[in-house]
Design goal:
The structure holds 2 protein chains of 2 kinds. By secondary structure, chain A is of the alpha+beta class. Chain A contains 18 helices and 14 strands. Chain B is built from 11 helices and 52 strands. In chain B, helix 5 runs antiparallel to helix 6. The chains are: A alpha+beta, B mainly beta. Chains A and B meet through helix 1, helix 2, helix 3, helix 5 and helix 18 of A and strand 29, strand 30, strand 34 and strand 35 of B.
Chain lengths: ~600, ~1000
């Protein structure tokens, strides 16, 4: 018995001690096997995939269903360039027309707004991590690593520029933030953001490994030094423009005025912008870029804005593909051969910006009656860029057999049939459809459009504008504009224009040349001519008469809302509510 | 070894039992007599397991499940002694009575009763924490297939909701004292069965001795890092010394839905569909002409103008359910055993349309348990507990409720000439498809094993003991999905014979296929648990002292894609000291030092201390003297304060690891564009992540008045939870890192009270009792790192309750354009008469997203109450239980909300819609104008129009039982026999009307709650 007791005590003690002794490491995890930052930078193959992800949010020129701005319409629809199908509630451009932009959606993650504030910062974080760590990669040569650093600088410059033009001063983040103590960074002054962008551009430009062009066509879509030059010029143009280049912002914001403007007017900024444009043009043209001139006046513009470099586009300094074989219904009008959602339709206001090839303009202020069976008469002589950008009544839409002409008209009465795309028959709402980027895709259900973010043509326009503002009309200004016009068969600019006349002319020329390329909305703002947004917005009513003539009558479709506080975007409502001190822009 | 013991002891007792039963003539010659009786507690309920001994002999027996007993005694001069833990032992002279219905008196005011507490048990008299107990005998009264439903209403402080009654998928969500953290999902209590963390929903109630619910810090501090949500301890039955007892209980029940939604019939559906169509566009041709509508009404063309009542067509009126249990228990001073086998079979409500296989909902389960205690030496005891179950569950391959919600009642006659039919207007919809589309089968088997060794060390010092325990659990699950294709037929009118008159044809689409090879998936997990403890328990005169030192560790191995092969681990060190002076002044100190592998090494282990004290006022001589036991029989005041923790954060683990890089993202490159996948940075680790910290206070008073007849317990509690694991919501966008979901930043306050009131008495020889409990728990979010809206503070969750519903305030319907013009513009949209009018809360002249505010109540109740009672008259027992919940709401969604949408159904209550030309000018309209296209959703925004009060009161349980007596028992050789009828969820009172208040009224509408009518018999041999 005693033995039994003794025995059980021994067993007991043994089990107890066994349990306790094993406990020290009981909760220790096995060594981490996950794929962490060290693993990524242990091989170039992995690091390169971070580089791919760096470009996740790039490619903004087209706003199709995919990058879904304003409920899948283009940003152009909130300018005088275009309008969306107004019965579609999902197109939030309709809210903008009605005056109801608010910070709960306009810049918030989602597809309804104009911008996604978060995404700029996501890209900047990726760039900071990549740039800080790329040197750790053991199996890549210095030039490869160096090039990636150049790209990181350029992509950050791009993101800060995109915020600069929308929000004014934003926080400047110089390293990937991981500690809560470092999280709070106030908005930097507009001046410092501007200088930060320029310094990032300069860093990229000074980088000896950063190529002027992507060395391999498979890398199309990656940033280059040409882009860094171009962005520098563009940034300087914006900084020199009236919205920012002033001591009085669009709305007085007291001590925070420095977040909205440069706090003084500096005329020299125009000269700097002109100089930057000159340097950009010179650098590009020394490195194989050039204005597209060799496809004839009716095609040059298409190649320059829609094609890839190997198809002859020497002009694109940065372009992307947003998607492969994407449905193009958001780019098509409702009455085209394929149907469509009429997300982005040209306005009559925009049509009137085009001149005839002889330098004259069409008079739209009276009803135009065409000859018998000649519906396209008013448009025939217009700028070739018009024909490549806009589809209109009677135009040849599908050029391949069977061909298809658009018929966007109503019969004058029951004895005259409506056209098959007529507003009554096919419920088209406006007289024009978008053609730009559809050239060659008219009869297929999907497309793979190249979105140009920056073209050399813009550099010439920057040069013309900045030079005109800095020094008034000069040979340089006219020459720069003529480069753009002559390649599309348009006459040279009249030398009689004075500085103000040229200013107006350049604004108009930008609107034509950069149509739908996401410039107009911000051009109007930087030039501080926001009343343009008020409209009135015109369309044209097309009626087929009994005698087979067509009448084109311009009519006002609507007026739009515009408020001065719209000059800069609101920070997301929730972002301000986070309470870390982000100052909301005035009026929001 | 254990099995050998088990078999040997079982064998020997079988022999004894056999002898006993097969010698009925044994007492004929002697003067012995058999006495029979029933033992009841102060509530009049039968007391199982009382020991009845003939005084001066070794002759003894035990009372059965209902308290009945029979014993052979020498004769009228014999005295029987009845003993039961927690009750005064009674001696009764046999005399010449035949029936011995004896009510036991609680000893020392019921305070010697033993309560299961964390890692131990205590006398109820000395308990200072907030612990409620429910006995297995009570649970058996509820004929529910899931044990979690049986406790509802019986325990104060337990709040519950059961969303579904689907066989095998009918778990009740239980929350102890409400929700103390920011997410209901992380507020689940810790559940332990026989001391090891295991689920208890599938345990056979016949195997349960008691369930203890530990509510305050004093009782849960020993579970430390996981104690904050409260703990449920389930203890299974053990054998007791005495001859072998064989218990059989069999139940047969029918299940009926408590309530099913009512849909519009074909005619009214079509009629209102036309109304909706004309609402949208008054100029269109109505989709049904008057003549067509008439056909829906008179049923003259049932193929093309059908009227289908889906629930009637697809469901049986009731479904059967059976439960059986056989258990054998008994033991000697050396070995005790309890062996139980249970079977449950529950059928679903669906009708069978397919011949080849059963695709109804089905649930079948076999339970087994074998609990064995062995005294190896006088001071060494071993116990082996084996329990488990194996279950099979089937569900239809489709989702019948979803399909019923999605199928119009004028879209198909269902079946026609044995074929599944659809009409063009139903766009192919036929809810029957769900019952043709194969079935899914889930099997589960669970094995739980506990092995323990207790050693007394009285020879070192009196009251010292040690124990070790090991547990091994294994679970295996398999799910298989069998599907098959089946032919559908579209009914169309086509001129077949060319006579210019269209004839009805059935155009087939799809083929009747065979069941395909099942898709199959497996899950398996195992748990290994180890516990070692030293205990001390002694009294020195008036000083009572106990102590506990304990260590446990646990690993759970399971298959998971995110954490392959890394088991989940916990480790605890526990101490407890209790001291009492004369059972009058009580002090207790509990502490856990617990670690959770969820946290990094420096914040892995925490201290969780709790102190509590009690004062038994009635043990004061002065009180005894001046008030007297006749008035105030008992009063205990107790209070506790302590810290406990919570480590739950969904299923996330290792939140402290640095960020992983994941494949994804990327962009398109190349002039011939090619998509290139990137790597992106995953969630940033939180190196400081640690447990939620809860500080709990509890104050209580326990009263017994009038010789223990009236009892009143009051509990007040307050919990402040801080360090709550929640997402950081105010990190600036420019940080741009994806942060872990868990930072210790949230803070919630939760407080409430519990009241229990009881009365028991006798009228003549019949005893009766009534009892009620009421619990209230309300929480408030103190901090959740919300992006706080200072402009519109009503939009913030901070300061509101967890799960608060935000929505617009319904102000009626627009009756005219004039109405609309006078009202603030809503959502920048043009309103029409019949649209919903919302309050402009902000008063800024427009109704927009800022006009939302908290509406009604969260979906989980704040109030739960139970009211029960019963009486015993002669051989009849009767008991009832009412249970209710309040301060809970239900949000309507999907087809409850959007009639006709996407070819879907419409509920009957939409008849109360707003419509032009209503005779009472829409004074009683409850639904906005009908529409078909839902282009404008503003009428259906979350608002006080669409949230409904889901408070309810149910007659949860009623049981009437008859205890057989007399010669019949002898004839069948039974010691006792009870026949009974009981029912669950028999009546429900609420304001919701169209669906069960615990159900879900959205597109995921679930299987209804069930009303169960049960008949059963209990036999003891």
């Amino acid at each position: 018995m005693k033995f039994k007791i003794f025995f059980s005590i021994i067993i007991f003690a043994a089990i107890f001690l066994l349990g306790l002794s094993s406990c020290k490491k009981y909760l220790e995890m096995p060594a981490q096997t996950s794929f962490n930052v060290d693993s990524v930078f242990s091989r170039y193959q992995n690091a390169e995939r971070l580089l791919f992800d760096l470009y996740q949010f790039q490619g903004r020129a087209l706003a199709t269903a995919l990058n879904g701005k304003l409920g899948s319409t283009s940003v152009s629809t909130i300018t005088d360039e275009a309008i969306c199908f107004t019965a579609q509630n999902g197109y939030t451009a309709n809210n903008v027309y009605a005056g109801s932009i608010n910070s709960t959606w306009f810049t918030v993650n989602g597809t309804n707004g104009e911008d996604v504030y978060d995404n700029h910062w996501k890209t900047i974080r990726k760039a900071l991590i990549l740039k800080d760590n790329i040197d750790r990669v053991p199996d890549a040569p210095a030039d490869v690593k160096g090039r990636i650093k150049g790209e990181c600088a350029a992509v950050m410059a791009l993101e800060y520029f995109e915020m600069f033009k929308r929000y004014g001063g934003v926080p400047i983040v110089k390293k990937a933030l991981n500690d809560a103590e470092e999280f709070v960074i106030p908005r930097a002054s507009l001046d410092s953001v501007y200088k930060h962008i320029i310094s990032l551009c300069d860093e990229a430009i000074a980088n000896p490994y950063f190529p002027a062009k992507v060395p391999d066509e498979k890398e199309f879509g990656r940033l280059t030094k040409a882009f860094a030059y171009g962005l520098k010029a563009r940034t300087m143009l914006y900084a020199a423009s009236p919205l920012f280049n002033t001591d009085k912002p669009y709305q007085d914001f007291g001590a925070n005025n420095k977040l909205l403007c440069l706090m003084k007017y500096d005329k020299n900024l125009w000269a700097s912008a002109a100089q930057a444009a000159r340097e950009a043009i010179a650098y590009c043209e020394q490195n194989g870029y050039g204005i597209v001139k060799s496809f004839g006046p009716t095609r040059n513009y298409k190649v320059a804005s829609e094609d890839v470099p190997k198809a002859g586009n020497t002009e694109v300094m940065y372009g992307t593909f947003q998607a492969i074989n994407q449905s193009k219904l958001y780019w098509l009008g409702r009455g085209t051969n394929m149907g469509g959602y009429a997300a982005t339709e040209p306005t009559q206001n925009h049509i009137e910006k085009y001149q005839n090839t002889d330098g004259t303009s069409v008079n739209w202020n009276t009803t135009i009656t065409t000859p018998v069976n000649d519906p396209t008469a008013p448009y025939k002589k217009l700028d070739p860029r018009f024909h490549l950008s806009v589809a209109y009544n009677g135009c040849l839409w599908v050029t391949t057999t069977p061909t298809y002409n658009l018929e966007i008209y109503d019969g004058v009465d029951a004895s005259v049939a409506h056209g098959r795309n007529g507003p009554i028959v096919a419920k088209t709402q406006f007289a024009y459809f978008t053609r730009k980027w559809l050239n060659g895709f008219e009869s297929s259900g999907v497309w793979t459009p190249m979105s140009p973010y920056m073209r050399l043509a813009e550099m010439y326009l920057i040069l013309a504008e900045a030079s005109n503002e800095a020094n008034g009309p000069s040979a340089e200004v006219f020459a720069a504009l003529d480069v753009i016009r002559t390649r599309s068969g348009m006459p040279i600019v009249s030398k009689t224009l004075d500085q103000a006349g040229l200013r107006k002319f350049i604004e108009n020329e930008r609107s034509i040349e950069l149509y739908l390329e996401n410039h107009r909305y911000f051009d109007v703002k930087r030039l501080k001519i926001g009343d343009v947004f008020k409209g009135p917005i015109y369309d044209v009513r097309v009626i087929r008469q009994k005698n087979s003539t067509y009448t084109y009558t311009k009519y006002k479709y609507h007026d739009r809302a515009w408020f001065p506080h719209w000059y800069l975007h609101p920070f997301p409502y929730n972002e301000v509510n986070k309470g870390y001190g982000l100052v909301q822009n005035p009026g929001w | 070894m254990a099995i050998f013991f088990f078999a040997a002891s079982l064998n020997s007792f079988q022999v004894q039992a056999f002898n006993h039963l097969n010698h009925p003539g044994y007492d004929v010659k002697s003067i012995r007599s058999v006495i029979k009786g029933k033992l009841t507690n102060e509530w009049g309920e039968g007391l199982a397991g009382c020991t009845i001994t003939e005084k001066g002999t070794k002759n003894s027996t035990q009372s059965g499940a209902d308290g009945s007993f029979s014993i052979d005694v020498q004769g009228p001069s014999s005295v029987i002694v009845i003993t039961y833990v927690g009750y005064e032992s009674q001696e009764v002279k046999v005399g010449n009575l035949n029936n011995y219905n004896i009510s036991l008196v609680p000893s020392a005011a019921n305070m010697d009763q033993v309560v299961v507490v964390g890692y131990s048990s205590q006398k109820k008299a000395t308990v200072t924490g907030a612990i409620s107990t429910v006995k297995g005998a009570d649970l058996i009264k509820s004929p529910v297939p899931n044990l979690t439903a049986a406790v509802v209403g019986r325990v104060p402080g337990l709040l519950s909701v059961q969303r579904s009654g689907q066989p095998g998928n009918d778990e009740t969500t239980l929350r102890i004292r409400g929700i103390g953290t920011l997410d209901n999902g992380n507020a689940a209590p810790l559940v332990l069965v026989d001391g090891v963390e295991r689920p208890f929903s599938r345990i056979d109630p016949n195997e349960v001795e008691s369930i203890s619910v530990l509510k305050d810090a004093a009782s849960t501090a020993v579970y430390g890092i996981r104690g904050a949500n409260g703990v449920i301890l389930v203890t299974t039955l053990k054998g007791k010394e005495g001859p072998a007892k064989v218990n059989y209980s069999g139940n047969y029940a029918v299940q009926v839905p408590t309530r099913l939604p009512k849909f519009l019939d074909g005619y009214n559906f079509s009629l209102l569909q036309v109304e909706a169509q004309l609402n949208d566009n008054p100029t269109v041709t109505p989709m049904f002409s008057k003549a067509e509508l008439e056909k829906f009404k008179d049923g003259s063309d049932p193929l093309f103008y059908p009227n289908i009542d889906w629930l009637e067509f697809m469901m049986n009126d009731y479904a059967p359910q059976q439960q059986h249990n056989v258990n054998i228990s008994g033991g000697t001073s050396v070995a005790k055993y309890f062996v139980s086998l249970g079977y449950l079979s529950q059928d679903g409500l669906w009708k069978q349309f397919v011949k080849e296989y059963n695709n109804n909902d089905l649930y079948k389960k076999f339970n087994f348990r074998s609990n064995l205690d062995l005294d190896i030496t006088k001071s060494t005891r071993a116990n082996v507990q084996i329990g488990g179950f194996t279950s099979n569950r089937s569900t239809p391959g489709g989702s019948p409720f979803l399909d019923i919600l999605a199928a119009a009642t004028n879209g198909t006659p269902g079946m026609w000439q044995g074929k599944v039919i659809t009409l063009a207007r139903a766009n192919g919809r036929n809810a029957l498809g769900a019952l043709f589309d194969g079935f899914d089968r889930y099997s589960n088997s669970v094995l739980n094993l506990n092995v323990g060794l207790n050693q007394k060390f009285d020879f070192i010092t009196k009251g010292l003991a040690a124990r070790v325990k090991g547990a091994y659990d294994s679970e295996y699950g398999q799910s298989r999905g069998f599907s098959r294709s089946f032919a559908r037929y579209a009914a169309e009118m086509v001129d077949v014979n060319g006579d210019g008159v269209p004839d009805p044809i059935l155009r087939q689409s799809g083929e009747d296929g065979v069941l395909n090879d099942p898709s199959e998936s497996f899950s398996r997990s195992k748990r290994v648990y180890f516990e070692a403890a030293m205990e001390y328990n002694n009294t020195f005169g008036k000083h009572g002292l106990t102590g506990l030192l304990l260590y446990t560790q646990r690993k759970q191995f399971y298959h998971s894609l995110s954490y392959p092969g890394i088991p989940l681990g916990y480790q605890d060190f526990v101490t407890r000291f209790t001291y009492n002076y004369s059972q009058k002044y009580l002090v207790e100190f509990n502490m856990g030092r617990n670690g959770s592998e969820n946290f990094p090494i420096n914040s892995r282990f925490g201290w969780f201390p709790a102190v509590s004290g009690g004062w038994v006022v009635t043990n004061e001589p002065l009180v005894k003297k001046f008030i007297g036991e006749d008035v105030l029989s008992y009063l205990k005041l107790r209070a506790s304060y302590g810290a406990v923790g919570n480590d739950r954060m969904g299923s996330s683990r290792f939140m402290y690891f640095p960020s992983e890089y994941l494949s994804g993202g990327g962009a398109i490159f190349g002039e011939d564009p090619v998509s290139r996948t990137g790597y992106y940075e995953g969630k940033l680790g939180n190196p400081n992540v640690t447990w939620e910290k809860s500080l709990k206070q509890n104050y209580a008073a326990e009263f017994r008045f009038l010789k223990n007849k009236l009892s009143l317990n009051l509990d007040y509690f307050l919990e402040k939870r801080s360090n709550i694991l929640t997402a950081r919501r105010t990190v600036p966008s420019h940080v741009a890192a994806v942060l872990q979901d868990a930072y210790n930043i949230g803070s919630v306050e939760n407080g409430g009270y519990e009241i229990e009131l009881g009365w028991n008495d006798k009228i003549g020889k019949s005893s009766y009792w009534v009892r009620g409990n009421y619990s209230f728990a309300r929480n408030k979010i103190l901090f959740m790192d919300e992006a706080y809206n200072t402009q519109f503070p009503l939009l913030n969750q901070t300061g509101q309750r967890v799960g608060e519903v935000f929505g617009y305030t319904f102000m009626g319907f627009f009756n005219s354009q004039d109405d609309i013009n006078k009202w603030p513009r809503q959502f920048n949209m043009d309103q029409r008469p019949g649209d919903v009018k919302y309050a402009d809360i902000t008063g800024d002249g427009i109704v927009d997203v800022n006009d939302r505010s908290p509406i009604m109540n969260p979906s989980f109740p704040e109030i739960n109450y139970g009211f029960s009672g019963g009486f015993t008259i002669k051989n009849f027992d009767f008991s009832f239980l009412f249970q209710g919940a309040a301060n809970m709401s239900m949000s309507l969604g999907f087809n409850a909300l959007l009639p006709f949408s996407a070819y879907g159904s419409a509920m009957d209550f939409i008849r109360e819609r707003w419509y032009a030309g209503s005779p009472d000018n829409n004074a009683n309209a409850k639904i906005p104008r009908l529409t078909l296209n839902y282009a404008d959703m503003t009428n259906y925004y979350n608002s006080s129009l669409w949230i409904r009060d889901a408070a309810y009161l149910r007659l949860r349980n009623v049981q009437i039982a008859y205890n057989m007596s007399g010669s019949f028992l002898k004839k069948i050789g039974a010691n006792s026999m009870k026949v009974f009828a009981n029912g669950q969820n028999l009546l429900t009172w609420d304001t919701l009307k169209f669906i069960d208040p615990e159900n879900i009224a959205t597109g995921s509408m679930t299987y209804p709650q069930l009303k169960v009518f049960n008949f059963g018999v209990n036999l003891q041999f």
